[in-house]
Inverse folding.
């Protein structure tokens, strides 16, 4: 099977880029299942019901979130939809769910969303212990497990990769919006990449307007962020698995 993970969708122009290119990529690359991170799709922060529906209609199977999960109140209308998951290590009682199990080509694929704790500034449970708990809970009922680890620190992402190596099929990082060139198959067979990048404005500071971003850093004043305009790029990664043992046989970055 071939599983595509799409980097953070930034703004409505990022959604349009996804809509224009995802069907083509799925056909050309023979993609069976698609995971899309949508936490920045509504104006750069949060997600709306329209954004969500657009992602599903163009071929996304499950939408993952992150630190901007609650950026738009609209999400409370559809947070319980089976095709959207939010970080599993948010405090107990928070709406929504942190993982889902989906059927595709006679396989059961589990997708877990987790959020890091280093420089994220959100009160969460330990992502290492929480993901391990869920993996041990579901490992016997699914064929594959993929984790979207939405985290700031590369070290935290790499550590989770080794922590769960051999216990999950693949781990990919999101949040920093810059695609890393460290895709690999870890020693015990887990496919891994630190960050899959973003789908959003190409000439930008991780999707935001360059001048506003520079002014904020230059002056230390609370300059309001705004989305960048212009041409968009598409980032993601393709995991290919062996149909016999469900192990990763290749991992490839994609950028359009």
């Amino acid at each position: 099977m071939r599983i595509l993970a799409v980097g953070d969708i930034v703004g409505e122009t990022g959604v349009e880029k996804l809509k224009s290119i995802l069907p083509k990529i799925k056909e050309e690359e023979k993609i069976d299942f698609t995971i899309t991170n949508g936490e920045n799709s509504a104006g750069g922060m949060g997600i709306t019901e329209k954004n969500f529906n657009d992602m599903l209609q163009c071929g996304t199977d499950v939408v993952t979130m992150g630190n901007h999960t609650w950026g738009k109140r609209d999400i409370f209308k559809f947070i319980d939809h089976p095709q959207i998951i939010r970080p599993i290590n948010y405090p107990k009682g928070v709406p929504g769910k942190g993982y889902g199990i989906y059927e595709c080509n006679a396989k059961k694929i589990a997708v877990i969303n987790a959020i890091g704790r280093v420089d994220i500034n959100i009160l969460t449970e330990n992502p290492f212990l929480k993901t391990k708990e869920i993996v041990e809970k579901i490992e016997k009922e699914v064929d594959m497990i993929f984790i979207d680890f939405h985290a700031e620190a590369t070290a935290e992402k790499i550590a989770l990769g080794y922590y769960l190596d051999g216990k999950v099929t693949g781990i990919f990082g999101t949040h920093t919006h810059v695609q890393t060139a460290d895709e690999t198959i870890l020693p015990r067979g887990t496919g891994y990449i630190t960050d899959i990048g973003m789908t959003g404005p190409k000439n930008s500071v991780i999707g935001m307007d360059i001048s506003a971003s520079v002014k904020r850093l230059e002056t230390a004043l609370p300059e309001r962020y705004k989305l960048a305009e212009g041409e968009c790029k598409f980032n993601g990664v393709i995991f290919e698995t062996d149909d016999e043992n469900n192990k990763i046989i290749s991992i490839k970055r994609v950028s359009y």
Observations:
- The longest strand covers residues 107-115.
- DSSP finds five helices and 15 strands in the chain.
- The helical segments are 11-28, 49-57, 127-138, 154-163, 210-219.
